[in-house]
Structures are given as structure tokens and as C-alpha cells.
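Give me the fold.
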Amino acid sequence: MLTMVVHVENKRDALARIVILFHRLAFNIESLTMHRAANPGILRITITIEAHPNLWPRIEARFHKLVDVLAVEIIS
């Protein structure tokens, strides 16, 4: 299981872009939680997926390519 926290700008379609990315990578989202971060205009999204640890760097790199993503943190 991979749990990651993604900080994104609070813009229209930011969540949709993240979900589409997982769809393109052929991963099912096990859990998704979204709420406002401490800074205004930023959302904190916690995502859990089933993925082999060898794929984690690839997934993280793909997130950094999304325009609205500010930071990605892999928790486990």
C-alpha cells in the first residue's frame, strides 16, 4: 500500500487531474481525503493506493509534472 500526501493549488479541476493520472497509470484509489491546508488557497489531498514499492518513485515523479501540484510526500 502506498499512502501519499499531495499539496495542490485550490483551483478548478485539480482533484480531477489527480484522479485521471491514477486512471492513466492503471491504479485503483483505495482511499482519498481532501481538505484545506493551513495556507489559504492550498488543498491537502491524502491518497492510498495498492502499488509495489518499486513503483513509488515513478508515481511521485508523475505527480510533480502536474501543474497545480506544489508538493508530494510519501508516507508509507
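Helices lie at 14-24, 56-64.
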